[in-house]
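Hi team,

Filling in the usual template for the complex we talked about on Friday. All components are listed, including any nucleic acid strands or ligand strings, so the model treats them as one assembly.

SUBMITTER: L.P.
PURPOSE: interface mapping
COMPONENTS: two
RESIDUES: 596
SEQUENCES:
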Amino acid sequence: MNETGRPQDFPLSNPRADRVRDVAKLAGRPARLKRGQFLAEGPQAVGEALALHQKRIAAGEPGIVREVFASGACLDRHPELEKLAEGTNARLATDDVLAAMADTVNPQGIIAVCTFLDVSLEEVLDAAPKLIAVLCQVRDPGNAGTVLRAADAAGADAVVLTGSSVDIYNPKAVRSTAGSLFHLPIVLGADVAELVARCKERGIGVLAADGYGQLNLDRLQDENAARRLGASAAESAYALEKPTAWLFGNEAQGLSEDEIALADHRVAVPVYGEAESLNLGTAATVCLYASARSQQAP
Amino acid sequence: MNETGRPQDFPLSNPRADRVRDVAKLAGRPARLKRGQFLAEGPQAVGEALALHQKRIAAGEPGIVREVFASGACLDRHPELEKLAEGTNARLATDDVLAAMADTVNPQGIIAVCTFLDVSLEEVLDAAPKLIAVLCQVRDPGNAGTVLRAADAAGADAVVLTGSSVDIYNPKAVRSTAGSLFHLPIVLGADVAELVARCKERGIGVLAADGYGQLNLDRLQDENAARRLGASAAESAYALEKPTAWLFGNEAQGLSEDEIALADHRVAVPVYGEAESLNLGTAATVCLYASARSQQAP
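RESULT (copied from the run log):
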C-alpha cells in the first residue's frame, strides 16, 4: 500500500503484457499444475482467499495469495477488500487487463493468484474429523463446487476428491464453491480403497450415496431421532451421529459397484415423486445435512 | 409408423429447410410464446414427453407432443422410444438436421416439439395439494430446472413460477429438470400475493425459505419428530406435515421483504460451517425434503 491507500496507483494497462498472459494461463490445468497456483475471481472468492491468507500469516504460516489485481472501481465498491489486501502483492489494473486475465466474461473487477491449498489425507484424519464428503469420479466442475459449498454449509471437516475427479482448481469449480474452497481442508488425488481403509482404521463409518441403496435416508433419520428422543430403544441400522465419510459418485453413472462394495452401507435419498433421481449436488446436500443434524443434535 | 417399424424411412436431410428452422426457433422465447410450443431434447426428456403424451391420449385428453425428429442410430440405441412414438408425428432426421434444430451442441439424436404444459393456479389448488414449490424471481434456467426436479423427487404436487421468474420452457431449464417437467403440474406467471392469499383460504401454510429466517429448519424437524414419536407433547412452531407452499427467492438476493412478509414463517436452513449460504437448488431441496419426510411419516 502507498500513502494514498491504494495498491500502486499506476494501473497495469496492457492486456497483452507477459505478466497478464501468465495470469490468464492459470485458467488451464497445465499452467496450474506447473506453478501450483490457481485463480480466484470476483469480490466474494478473493475476499475469502485474502481472509484465509491473513489468518495464516497471523498464525505464522505461509500465506496463500500471491498476487491481487483489482480495478479502482471495484475497490471503491468493496473497501473491505482493500483492507484485507494490506501487505499482499496487490496492483491496480484496468478493466481490459482484468478481462484478459479472467476466465469469466465478467470478472467483477478483482482477481487473485493463489497457491494450491490441498492437504494430505493424513493431515485430515489426524484432526479427528466427524464428517467428510468424498467425490468419486465427479466430472463437472460446477457439481464439484456445489458439493464443496454444501459440505461447508453442513459443517463438514474436509472434502476429498479422487484422482479421477475434476480439478477443483478449475475456475468454474472455484466459482461454484462461492468461497467455501477457502473454508475447509481439501484432499486431492485420493484412492478410494485406501481412503476407506484409513477411515475404517479410525472408526469412521463409510456410507455410499446410491439411488438403489437398501437403506432409506429418511427412515434412517427417523430411527435415529426415535433413539435420540428415547421413543425407541432399538438400534438404528446406522447411527448418523457417528463420524462418517460419505461417498458420492459420478453425476451420470453414480458410484461404481467396486466403490459401493467398500462402504459399510449404501444409502438412498428416497424419491417420493416420479423423478428418477436427484442431481448430484442436491442429493449430496440432503445426505450431508442428515449427518450434520444428527451430529449437532443436543 | 410404416411397415419397417421406422417413422418414414426417408430422413429429413436439409439443415437449411424452413421446417428445420421453425423447430430451431423454439430455442427463443418469442417463437415459443407465439406458437405455445417448446423443445425437449435427448432420449430422457423426449421419453418422458412421449410417456405423458400417450397417457393423455389414453385418457381421452389432447396429447402434448406435436413432432418428433430422431436419428436412426438413436432409435437403435433406444428402441423403447420408437414404441412410445407410435401414433405421433415422428420423422427420421440426419445428424446435421438434428444439430441445426437443437439448442445443445450434442442433441443426442432426438428432439420433440411439445405444446405448453402449464395449468391454472385454480386447477392446482382444486386438487388439494400438500406440497407446492414457488419460485419467486428465479433468473437462472439451470436453477429453476434443478428446483423443479427436486420438487418432483420430494413428491411435490405442483411448482409455481412467478411472472418475474425465468421461462421454464427455455431449453436449458427443460434440460435441468431431467424429465421432471413432464411429471407434475406447473403454473406460470403467478402473482405471489394472490397465490399466498389463495393458499391461506384453503388452509395451506406458507413458508419463506430465507437464510436470515428466525425458524431453524433442523430444529423444526426435531420438534416435529419429537411430537410425532410421542417424546414431546409440545406444539412445534410449525407442523411440517401440514399442506405447505414453500417460497424460494432469487439466487442472488433471495426473497424480497415484501415476499417474506406474506409468509406465515421465515425458515432458515442452518449453516453449521463457514459457508455464507447454500445455493438455491440445494437449499430448496433440503426444505422440500423436510416437508416430504414429515408428510410421508407413518
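MY TAKE: DSSP finds 13 helices and eleven strands in chain B. Chain B touches chain A at residues 44, 146, 149-156, 178-180, 183-184, 218, 221-222, 225-226, 229-232, 269, 271-279, 281-282, 285-286, 289, 292-293, 296-297 (CB under 8 Å).

Thanks, L.
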